[in-house]
Amino acid sequence: MGEAPAFIVDGLQNQIEFENGCGSKFKGCKTTTTIGDKSYVIGGNDESTLPVEVRIFDKATGNWVTPIVLGSKPNLCKGLSAISLNDDRILIVKKGSAPDDCILFLEVDTWFVREQKKIRGTEVVAWSKGVRGDAEKPVVISGPSGVGKGTLISMLMKEFPSMFGFSVSHTTRAPRGMEKDGVHYHFTERSIMEKEIKDGKFVEYASVHGNLYGTSIEAVEVVTDAGKRCILDIDVQGARSVKASSLEAILIFICPPSMKELETRLRSRRTETEDQILKRLQNAEVEMEQGKSSGIFDHILYNDNLDGCYESLKKLLGIDGAAAATQISAPQGIDLPADHSVSKMDNKIIINYGTPELEKASKRLIVLDVSSLKGGAPGRTRGLDVYATDSFSDDLNGINQPS
Ligand SMILES: Nc1ncnc2c1ncn2[C@@H]1O[C@H](COP(=O)(O)OP(=O)(O)OP(=O)(O)O)[C@@H](O)[C@H]1O
Ligand SMILES: Nc1nc2c(ncn2[C@@H]2O[C@H](COP(=O)(O)O)[C@@H](O)[C@H]2O)c(=O)[nH]1
Protein backbone atom coordinates (compact mmCIF):
# COMPACT_ATOMS: atom_id res chain seq x y z
CA MET A 1 0.00 0.00 0.00
CA GLY A 2 1.52 3.29 -1.02
CA GLU A 3 1.49 6.58 0.77
CA ALA A 4 -1.79 8.36 0.25
CA PRO A 5 -1.35 11.53 -1.72
CA ALA A 6 -1.72 14.83 0.08
CA PHE A 7 -4.72 16.89 -0.98
CA ILE A 8 -3.58 20.44 -1.46
CA VAL A 9 -5.97 22.02 -3.87
CA ASP A 10 -9.23 23.86 -4.38
CA GLY A 11 -8.15 27.06 -2.72
CA LEU A 12 -7.00 25.44 0.53
CA GLN A 13 -4.09 27.85 0.58
CA ASN A 14 -6.30 30.88 0.59
CA GLN A 15 -5.14 33.45 3.05
CA ILE A 16 -6.91 36.26 4.75
CA GLU A 17 -5.27 38.78 2.42
CA PHE A 18 -7.07 37.28 -0.53
CA GLU A 19 -10.45 38.01 0.93
CA ASN A 20 -9.41 41.62 1.50
CA GLY A 21 -7.68 41.87 -1.84
CA CYS A 22 -8.83 40.00 -4.83
CA GLY A 23 -11.25 37.66 -3.12
CA SER A 24 -13.93 40.28 -3.37
CA LYS A 25 -13.14 40.75 -7.06
CA PHE A 26 -13.87 37.14 -7.98
CA LYS A 27 -17.43 36.41 -6.88
CA GLY A 28 -17.68 33.07 -8.68
CA CYS A 29 -15.29 30.17 -8.61
CA LYS A 30 -11.68 30.75 -7.73
CA THR A 31 -8.66 28.81 -6.66
CA THR A 32 -5.36 29.86 -5.17
CA THR A 33 -2.00 28.24 -5.72
CA THR A 34 1.12 29.45 -3.97
CA ILE A 35 4.53 29.07 -5.59
CA GLY A 36 7.42 30.64 -3.67
CA ASP A 37 6.46 34.16 -2.68
CA LYS A 38 3.63 34.40 -5.15
CA SER A 39 0.03 33.29 -4.83
CA TYR A 40 -1.85 32.89 -8.11
CA VAL A 41 -5.57 33.47 -7.77
CA ILE A 42 -7.40 32.07 -10.77
CA GLY A 43 -11.11 32.57 -11.15
CA GLY A 44 -13.83 34.99 -12.06
CA ASN A 45 -17.41 35.96 -11.60
CA ASP A 46 -20.40 33.67 -12.13
CA GLU A 47 -20.77 34.19 -15.84
CA SER A 48 -19.75 31.27 -18.03
CA THR A 49 -19.26 33.46 -21.08
CA LEU A 50 -16.51 35.46 -19.35
CA PRO A 51 -12.89 34.36 -19.42
CA VAL A 52 -11.07 33.12 -16.34
CA GLU A 53 -8.94 35.89 -14.85
CA VAL A 54 -5.63 35.71 -13.04
CA ARG A 55 -4.28 37.89 -10.23
CA ILE A 56 -1.05 37.50 -8.32
CA PHE A 57 -0.41 38.33 -4.69
CA ASP A 58 3.29 38.98 -4.10
CA LYS A 59 4.01 38.25 -0.44
CA ALA A 60 7.44 39.88 -0.70
CA THR A 61 5.94 43.28 -1.54
CA GLY A 62 2.45 42.76 -0.14
CA ASN A 63 1.02 43.92 -3.50
CA TRP A 64 -1.55 42.55 -5.90
CA VAL A 65 -0.43 42.37 -9.53
CA THR A 66 -2.59 41.93 -12.61
CA PRO A 67 -0.31 40.12 -15.07
CA ILE A 68 -0.32 40.20 -18.86
CA VAL A 69 -2.10 36.98 -19.81
CA LEU A 70 -0.97 35.30 -23.05
CA GLY A 71 -2.65 32.44 -24.94
CA SER A 72 -6.38 31.77 -25.28
CA LYS A 73 -8.09 32.44 -21.97
CA PRO A 74 -10.53 29.68 -20.96
CA ASN A 75 -14.11 30.58 -20.16
CA LEU A 76 -15.51 30.25 -16.69
CA CYS A 77 -17.08 27.02 -15.55
CA LYS A 78 -18.64 25.35 -12.51
CA GLY A 79 -15.42 25.36 -10.56
CA LEU A 80 -11.68 25.01 -10.77
CA SER A 81 -9.09 22.82 -9.14
CA ALA A 82 -5.46 23.76 -9.39
CA ILE A 83 -2.15 22.20 -8.54
CA SER A 84 1.41 23.37 -9.04
CA LEU A 85 3.69 21.32 -11.30
CA ASN A 86 7.44 21.77 -10.94
CA ASP A 87 6.82 25.32 -9.69
CA ASP A 88 6.76 26.59 -13.28
CA ARG A 89 3.16 25.88 -14.26
CA ILE A 90 -0.19 25.26 -12.62
CA LEU A 91 -2.37 22.43 -13.83
CA ILE A 92 -6.04 23.43 -13.81
CA VAL A 93 -8.97 21.04 -13.95
CA LYS A 94 -12.23 22.72 -14.97
CA LYS A 95 -15.21 21.09 -13.33
CA GLY A 96 -18.04 19.98 -15.55
CA SER A 97 -16.40 21.23 -18.71
CA ALA A 98 -16.49 19.73 -22.17
CA PRO A 99 -14.07 16.81 -22.44
CA ASP A 100 -11.72 18.68 -24.74
CA ASP A 101 -11.65 21.73 -22.56
CA CYS A 102 -11.02 20.59 -19.01
CA ILE A 103 -7.25 20.25 -18.57
CA LEU A 104 -5.32 23.49 -18.81
CA PHE A 105 -1.94 24.77 -17.82
CA LEU A 106 -1.21 28.25 -16.58
CA GLU A 107 2.49 28.75 -17.16
CA VAL A 108 4.02 31.08 -14.57
CA ASP A 109 7.76 30.49 -14.85
CA THR A 110 8.46 28.42 -17.97
CA TRP A 111 11.11 29.44 -20.49
CA PHE A 112 8.49 31.12 -22.68
CA VAL A 113 7.04 33.08 -19.78
CA ARG A 114 10.47 34.13 -18.49
CA GLU A 115 11.38 35.44 -21.97
CA GLN A 116 8.09 37.33 -22.18
CA LYS A 117 8.69 38.85 -18.72
CA LYS A 118 12.09 40.09 -19.92
CA ILE A 119 10.64 41.57 -23.12
CA ARG A 120 7.67 43.23 -21.43
CA GLY A 121 9.30 44.13 -18.12
CA THR A 122 6.23 43.07 -16.18
CA GLU A 123 4.52 40.02 -14.71
CA VAL A 124 3.35 37.57 -17.42
CA VAL A 125 1.47 34.26 -17.34
CA ALA A 126 0.42 32.11 -20.32
CA TRP A 127 -2.41 29.64 -20.88
CA SER A 128 -1.85 26.37 -22.72
CA LYS A 129 -4.43 23.67 -23.22
CA GLY A 130 -3.48 20.07 -22.38
CA VAL A 131 -3.81 17.50 -25.13
CA ARG A 132 -3.71 13.78 -24.58
CA GLY A 133 -1.03 11.75 -26.28
CA ASP A 134 1.93 12.80 -28.22
CA ALA A 135 1.00 14.60 -31.41
CA GLU A 136 4.09 14.77 -33.59
CA LYS A 137 6.36 17.78 -33.55
CA PRO A 138 5.44 20.73 -35.77
CA VAL A 139 7.39 21.01 -39.04
CA VAL A 140 8.96 24.27 -40.22
CA ILE A 141 9.68 24.50 -43.95
CA SER A 142 11.92 27.40 -44.87
CA GLY A 143 13.96 28.48 -47.88
CA PRO A 144 14.25 31.29 -50.43
CA SER A 145 11.23 32.57 -52.30
CA GLY A 146 10.44 30.38 -55.32
CA VAL A 147 12.37 27.31 -54.15
CA GLY A 148 9.18 25.22 -53.97
CA LYS A 149 8.17 25.26 -50.29
CA GLY A 150 4.50 25.85 -51.04
CA THR A 151 4.53 23.19 -53.76
CA LEU A 152 6.02 20.56 -51.42
CA ILE A 153 3.62 21.47 -48.60
CA SER A 154 0.61 21.21 -50.97
CA MET A 155 1.76 17.73 -52.01
CA LEU A 156 2.06 16.66 -48.37
CA MET A 157 -1.34 18.06 -47.42
CA LYS A 158 -2.96 16.43 -50.46
CA GLU A 159 -1.51 12.99 -49.75
CA PHE A 160 -2.02 13.14 -45.96
CA PRO A 161 -5.00 15.44 -45.33
CA SER A 162 -5.78 14.03 -41.91
CA MET A 163 -2.18 14.00 -40.77
CA PHE A 164 -1.01 17.53 -41.49
CA GLY A 165 -2.56 20.95 -40.98
CA PHE A 166 -1.20 24.20 -42.37
CA SER A 167 -0.49 27.07 -40.02
CA VAL A 168 -2.19 30.00 -41.75
CA SER A 169 0.10 32.99 -41.32
CA HIS A 170 -0.80 36.66 -41.09
CA THR A 171 0.67 39.00 -43.69
CA THR A 172 0.43 42.64 -44.69
CA ARG A 173 1.12 41.87 -48.35
CA ALA A 174 -1.73 42.01 -50.87
CA PRO A 175 -3.38 38.73 -51.90
CA ARG A 176 -2.35 37.16 -55.22
CA GLY A 177 -5.03 36.32 -57.77
CA MET A 178 -6.08 32.90 -56.46
CA GLU A 179 -5.27 33.43 -52.79
CA LYS A 180 -8.11 33.30 -50.27
CA ASP A 181 -8.20 35.14 -46.96
CA GLY A 182 -8.07 32.67 -44.07
CA VAL A 183 -6.86 29.83 -46.31
CA HIS A 184 -3.53 30.92 -47.76
CA TYR A 185 -2.99 33.81 -45.35
CA HIS A 186 -4.86 36.04 -42.97
CA PHE A 187 -4.43 39.25 -44.97
CA THR A 188 -4.29 42.17 -42.58
CA GLU A 189 -3.41 45.84 -42.10
CA ARG A 190 0.04 46.69 -40.78
CA SER A 191 -1.31 48.77 -37.87
CA ILE A 192 -3.61 45.93 -36.78
CA MET A 193 -0.87 43.33 -37.03
CA GLU A 194 1.59 45.53 -35.14
CA LYS A 195 -0.94 45.93 -32.33
CA GLU A 196 -1.55 42.17 -32.21
CA ILE A 197 2.19 41.52 -32.10
CA LYS A 198 2.43 43.93 -29.17
CA ASP A 199 -0.42 42.10 -27.46
CA GLY A 200 1.60 38.88 -27.61
CA LYS A 201 -0.58 37.07 -30.12
CA PHE A 202 2.29 35.81 -32.28
CA VAL A 203 4.67 32.88 -31.92
CA GLU A 204 7.02 34.60 -34.37
CA TYR A 205 6.97 37.42 -36.91
CA ALA A 206 9.38 39.04 -39.34
CA SER A 207 9.65 41.68 -41.99
CA VAL A 208 10.13 39.74 -45.24
CA HIS A 209 10.62 41.33 -48.68
CA GLY A 210 9.12 44.56 -47.33
CA ASN A 211 6.00 43.12 -45.70
CA LEU A 212 5.16 41.83 -42.22
CA TYR A 213 4.55 38.09 -41.86
CA GLY A 214 3.79 36.16 -38.67
CA THR A 215 2.50 32.96 -37.12
CA SER A 216 -0.20 33.60 -34.53
CA ILE A 217 -0.47 31.39 -31.46
CA GLU A 218 -4.03 30.67 -32.58
CA ALA A 219 -2.90 29.44 -36.02
CA VAL A 220 -0.82 26.73 -34.33
CA GLU A 221 -3.52 25.93 -31.75
CA VAL A 222 -6.18 25.39 -34.44
CA VAL A 223 -4.07 22.71 -36.13
CA THR A 224 -3.02 20.99 -32.90
CA ASP A 225 -6.60 20.95 -31.63
CA ALA A 226 -7.65 19.16 -34.81
CA GLY A 227 -5.15 16.46 -33.84
CA LYS A 228 -2.91 17.28 -36.79
CA ARG A 229 0.78 17.91 -37.19
CA CYS A 230 1.34 21.59 -37.80
CA ILE A 231 3.30 22.73 -40.89
CA LEU A 232 4.75 26.24 -40.94
CA ASP A 233 5.98 27.87 -44.18
CA ILE A 234 8.12 30.69 -42.81
CA ASP A 235 11.31 32.57 -43.62
CA VAL A 236 14.72 32.08 -41.98
CA GLN A 237 14.19 34.83 -39.37
CA GLY A 238 10.92 33.19 -38.35
CA ALA A 239 12.61 29.78 -38.23
CA ARG A 240 15.23 31.23 -35.89
CA SER A 241 12.48 32.49 -33.53
CA VAL A 242 10.68 29.15 -33.63
CA LYS A 243 13.93 27.34 -32.85
CA ALA A 244 14.32 29.51 -29.75
CA SER A 245 10.70 28.93 -28.69
CA SER A 246 9.10 26.03 -26.86
CA LEU A 247 7.39 24.82 -30.03
CA GLU A 248 9.95 21.99 -30.39
CA ALA A 249 9.63 21.94 -34.17
CA ILE A 250 11.63 20.06 -36.78
CA LEU A 251 13.28 22.71 -38.96
CA ILE A 252 13.90 21.96 -42.65
CA PHE A 253 15.62 24.25 -45.13
CA ILE A 254 14.91 23.81 -48.85
CA CYS A 255 17.68 24.77 -51.30
CA PRO A 256 17.36 25.37 -55.04
CA PRO A 257 19.79 23.51 -57.34
CA SER A 258 21.20 26.92 -58.38
CA MET A 259 20.39 30.62 -58.12
CA LYS A 260 19.74 30.61 -61.87
CA GLU A 261 17.08 27.93 -61.49
CA LEU A 262 15.58 29.84 -58.54
CA GLU A 263 15.21 32.90 -60.76
CA THR A 264 13.61 30.80 -63.51
CA ARG A 265 11.06 29.39 -61.04
CA LEU A 266 10.24 32.79 -59.55
CA ARG A 267 9.76 34.34 -62.99
CA SER A 268 7.72 31.45 -64.35
CA ARG A 269 5.33 31.71 -61.39
CA ARG A 270 4.31 35.16 -62.66
CA THR A 271 3.08 36.39 -59.29
CA GLU A 272 5.57 39.18 -58.59
CA THR A 273 6.50 42.38 -60.39
CA GLU A 274 10.05 42.77 -61.76
CA ASP A 275 11.03 44.89 -58.74
CA GLN A 276 9.65 42.32 -56.32
CA ILE A 277 11.46 39.49 -58.14
CA LEU A 278 14.76 41.35 -57.89
CA LYS A 279 14.22 42.04 -54.20
CA ARG A 280 13.39 38.38 -53.52
CA LEU A 281 16.46 37.20 -55.45
CA GLN A 282 18.68 39.60 -53.53
CA ASN A 283 17.27 38.38 -50.22
CA ALA A 284 17.69 34.78 -51.40
CA GLU A 285 21.50 35.16 -51.32
CA VAL A 286 21.44 36.02 -47.60
CA GLU A 287 18.80 33.39 -46.81
CA MET A 288 20.87 30.69 -48.53
CA GLU A 289 23.92 31.61 -46.50
CA GLN A 290 21.99 31.62 -43.22
CA GLY A 291 20.02 28.52 -44.08
CA LYS A 292 23.06 26.44 -44.81
CA SER A 293 25.45 27.65 -42.13
CA SER A 294 23.59 29.15 -39.18
CA GLY A 295 22.89 25.88 -37.38
CA ILE A 296 19.18 26.79 -37.21
CA PHE A 297 18.05 23.90 -39.35
CA ASP A 298 17.92 20.21 -38.50
CA HIS A 299 17.82 19.14 -42.17
CA ILE A 300 18.65 20.58 -45.59
CA LEU A 301 16.91 19.27 -48.72
CA TYR A 302 17.73 20.13 -52.35
CA ASN A 303 14.69 20.68 -54.51
CA ASP A 304 16.13 19.80 -57.90
CA ASN A 305 13.78 17.07 -58.98
CA LEU A 306 10.40 17.76 -57.34
CA ASP A 307 9.33 14.13 -56.88
CA GLY A 308 12.75 13.17 -55.53
CA CYS A 309 12.69 16.05 -53.04
CA TYR A 310 9.15 15.15 -51.95
CA GLU A 311 10.20 11.55 -51.30
CA SER A 312 13.16 12.78 -49.21
CA LEU A 313 10.84 15.04 -47.24
CA LYS A 314 8.46 12.16 -46.49
CA LYS A 315 11.37 9.98 -45.43
CA LEU A 316 12.56 12.69 -43.10
CA LEU A 317 9.12 12.92 -41.53
CA GLY A 318 8.93 9.14 -41.17
CA ILE A 319 6.02 8.74 -43.56
CA ASP A 320 7.69 7.12 -46.53
CA GLY A 321 6.84 3.66 -47.88
CA ALA A 322 4.76 1.36 -45.72
CA ALA A 323 4.55 3.82 -42.88
CA ALA A 324 2.62 6.20 -45.12
CA ALA A 325 -0.58 4.34 -44.42
CA THR A 326 -0.33 5.07 -40.70
CA GLN A 327 -2.11 8.26 -39.78
CA ILE A 328 -1.43 10.01 -36.53
CA SER A 329 -4.50 9.64 -34.39
CA ALA A 330 -6.11 12.76 -33.05
CA PRO A 331 -5.41 13.57 -29.41
CA GLN A 332 -8.61 12.65 -27.66
CA GLY A 333 -10.33 14.77 -25.07
CA ILE A 334 -10.02 13.84 -21.45
CA ASP A 335 -13.40 13.07 -20.02
CA LEU A 336 -13.57 14.28 -16.44
CA PRO A 337 -16.59 14.45 -14.17
CA ALA A 338 -17.87 17.62 -12.53
CA ASP A 339 -17.39 16.63 -8.86
CA HIS A 340 -13.85 15.78 -8.03
CA SER A 341 -10.81 16.61 -6.00
CA VAL A 342 -7.29 16.78 -7.30
CA SER A 343 -4.06 15.70 -5.66
CA LYS A 344 -0.48 15.06 -6.67
CA MET A 345 1.81 12.13 -6.15
CA ASP A 346 5.20 12.21 -7.82
CA ASN A 347 4.54 12.74 -11.52
CA LYS A 348 0.90 11.74 -11.28
CA ILE A 349 -2.12 13.94 -10.76
CA ILE A 350 -4.94 12.01 -9.20
CA ILE A 351 -8.50 13.12 -9.82
CA ASN A 352 -10.83 11.48 -7.35
CA TYR A 353 -14.50 11.48 -8.20
CA GLY A 354 -15.55 8.72 -5.84
CA THR A 355 -18.17 9.42 -3.16
CA PRO A 356 -18.61 7.36 0.04
CA GLU A 357 -21.53 5.57 -1.64
CA LEU A 358 -19.41 4.82 -4.64
CA GLU A 359 -16.47 3.78 -2.49
CA LYS A 360 -16.64 0.29 -3.88
CA ALA A 361 -17.44 1.31 -7.39
CA SER A 362 -14.76 0.76 -9.93
CA LYS A 363 -12.90 3.48 -11.81
CA ARG A 364 -13.27 6.25 -9.32
CA LEU A 365 -9.82 7.66 -9.88
CA ILE A 366 -8.45 9.24 -13.00
CA VAL A 367 -4.73 9.62 -13.19
CA LEU A 368 -2.88 12.10 -15.35
CA ASP A 369 0.72 11.14 -15.88
CA VAL A 370 2.55 14.41 -16.39
CA SER A 371 6.07 12.98 -16.51
CA SER A 372 6.45 13.48 -20.26
CA LEU A 373 4.93 16.87 -20.95
CA LYS A 374 6.02 18.46 -24.21
CA GLY A 375 5.45 21.79 -25.88
CA GLY A 376 3.41 24.30 -23.92
CA ALA A 377 2.76 27.97 -24.43
CA PRO A 378 2.67 29.25 -27.09
CA GLY A 379 0.64 26.39 -28.51
CA ARG A 380 -0.46 23.32 -26.63
CA THR A 381 0.92 21.11 -23.86
CA ARG A 382 1.23 17.61 -25.29
CA GLY A 383 2.21 14.29 -23.80
CA LEU A 384 -0.51 13.93 -21.16
CA ASP A 385 -1.16 10.32 -20.35
CA VAL A 386 -4.53 9.46 -18.82
CA TYR A 387 -5.57 6.28 -17.00
CA ALA A 388 -8.58 5.25 -14.98
CA THR A 389 -8.22 3.08 -11.91
CA ASP A 390 -10.27 2.09 -8.90
CA SER A 391 -8.23 2.61 -5.74
CA PHE A 392 -5.03 3.88 -4.20
CA SER A 393 -3.93 0.30 -3.66
CA ASP A 394 -1.13 -1.31 -5.63
CA ASP A 395 1.13 1.56 -4.66
CA LEU A 396 -0.37 3.37 -7.66
CA ASN A 397 1.54 0.95 -9.84
CA GLY A 398 -1.81 -0.38 -10.96
CA ILE A 399 -2.39 2.96 -12.54
CA ASN A 400 0.13 2.07 -15.15
CA GLN A 401 -2.32 -0.32 -16.70
CA PRO A 402 -4.53 1.51 -19.18
CA SER A 403 -8.18 0.74 -18.45
N1 LIG B 1 11.58 20.93 -58.37
C1 LIG B 1 11.00 21.85 -59.11
N2 LIG B 1 11.31 21.96 -60.43
C2 LIG B 1 10.74 22.89 -61.20
N3 LIG B 1 9.82 23.79 -60.77
C3 LIG B 1 9.48 23.73 -59.46
C4 LIG B 1 10.04 22.77 -58.58
N4 LIG B 1 9.50 22.96 -57.35
C5 LIG B 1 8.64 24.00 -57.47
N5 LIG B 1 8.61 24.46 -58.73
C6 LIG B 1 7.84 25.59 -59.26
O1 LIG B 1 8.50 26.78 -58.81
C7 LIG B 1 7.57 27.81 -58.56
C8 LIG B 1 7.75 28.34 -57.15
O2 LIG B 1 7.34 27.35 -56.24
P1 LIG B 1 6.58 27.72 -54.89
O3 LIG B 1 5.55 28.74 -55.15
O4 LIG B 1 6.16 26.45 -54.27
O5 LIG B 1 7.79 28.39 -54.09
P2 LIG B 1 7.84 28.93 -52.58
O6 LIG B 1 9.14 28.49 -52.03
O7 LIG B 1 6.63 28.52 -51.85
O8 LIG B 1 7.87 30.48 -52.81
P3 LIG B 1 7.41 31.67 -51.80
O9 LIG B 1 8.34 31.64 -50.64
O10 LIG B 1 7.60 32.91 -52.61
O11 LIG B 1 6.00 31.47 -51.41
C9 LIG B 1 6.20 27.22 -58.81
O12 LIG B 1 5.76 27.63 -60.09
C10 LIG B 1 6.42 25.71 -58.76
O13 LIG B 1 5.53 25.02 -59.59
N1 LIG C 1 8.60 34.69 -40.60
C1 LIG C 1 7.56 34.35 -41.36
N2 LIG C 1 7.70 34.19 -42.69
C2 LIG C 1 6.63 33.83 -43.39
C3 LIG C 1 5.37 33.61 -42.81
N3 LIG C 1 4.50 33.26 -43.78
C4 LIG C 1 5.19 33.24 -44.92
N4 LIG C 1 6.48 33.58 -44.70
C5 LIG C 1 7.57 33.66 -45.67
O1 LIG C 1 7.47 34.84 -46.41
C6 LIG C 1 8.10 34.64 -47.67
C7 LIG C 1 7.27 35.20 -48.77
O2 LIG C 1 6.05 34.54 -48.88
P1 LIG C 1 5.03 34.87 -50.07
O3 LIG C 1 3.81 34.08 -49.79
O4 LIG C 1 4.81 36.35 -50.06
O5 LIG C 1 5.74 34.43 -51.34
C8 LIG C 1 8.33 33.14 -47.80
O6 LIG C 1 9.72 32.89 -47.55
C9 LIG C 1 7.55 32.54 -46.69
O7 LIG C 1 8.15 31.38 -46.16
C10 LIG C 1 5.27 33.78 -41.40
O8 LIG C 1 4.21 33.60 -40.77
N5 LIG C 1 6.35 34.14 -40.71
Low-confidence stretches: 1-20, 322-334, 358-362, 392-403
Separation of the first and last Cα atoms: 20 Å
The main sheet comes to: 10 strands, mixed
Radius of gyration: 24 Å
DSSP helix fraction: 10-25%
Supply the helix-strand structural class.
Answer: alpha/beta
Q: What is the β-strand count?
A: 23
Quaternary: single chain
Task: Spell out which ligands are present.
Answer: adenosine-5'-triphosphate, ligand LQESDW3C
**Portion in strands:** 25-35%
User: Mean pLDDT, nearest integer?
Assistant: 81
Molecular shape: elongated
Number of helical segments? 9
GO molecular function: ATP binding; GMP kinase activity
Domain Guanylate kinase-like: 136-318
Pfam families: Guanylate_kin (PF00625)
Protein name: Guanylate kinase 1
Quickly list its features.
29% strand, 403 residues, 10-stranded mixed β-sheet, 24% helix, disordered C terminus, alpha/beta, disordered N terminus, binds the ligand Nc1nc2c(ncn2[C@@H]2O[C@H](COP(=O)(O)O)[C@@H](O)[C@H]2O)c(=O)[nH]1, binds adenosine-5'-triphosphate, single chain, elongated
